[in-house]
Automatic annotation (TrEMBL):
It comes from Shigella sonnei. The keyword Lyase applies. One of its GO terms (molecular function) is lyase activity. This is D-galactonate dehydratase. Keywords: Lyase. Pfam families: MR_MLE_N (PF02746). It comes from the Bacteria. Residues 14-73 form the Mandelate racemase/muconate lactonizing enzyme N-terminal domain. InterPro entries: DgoD-like, Enolase-like_N, Mandelate_racemase_N_dom.
Amino acid sequence: MKITKITTYRLPPRWMFLKIETDEGVVGWGEPVIEGRARTVEAAVHELSDYLIGQDPSRINDLWQVMYRAGFYRG
């Protein structure tokens, strides 16, 4: 199974939902929000989605590590 699409939905006043779709028809929903910063979180989701498309969604820890290491500069 591979992630094929990631879609965000911003709803008033400050709600955000995330839909992840796979090539096998499995769909997952999440709520990636920091209170009052839905647009900022939405931008981060879209930037990090490049690392997730084509990946196996069952490898949660591996995907978390990829996003963590790719998303932040530590030095």
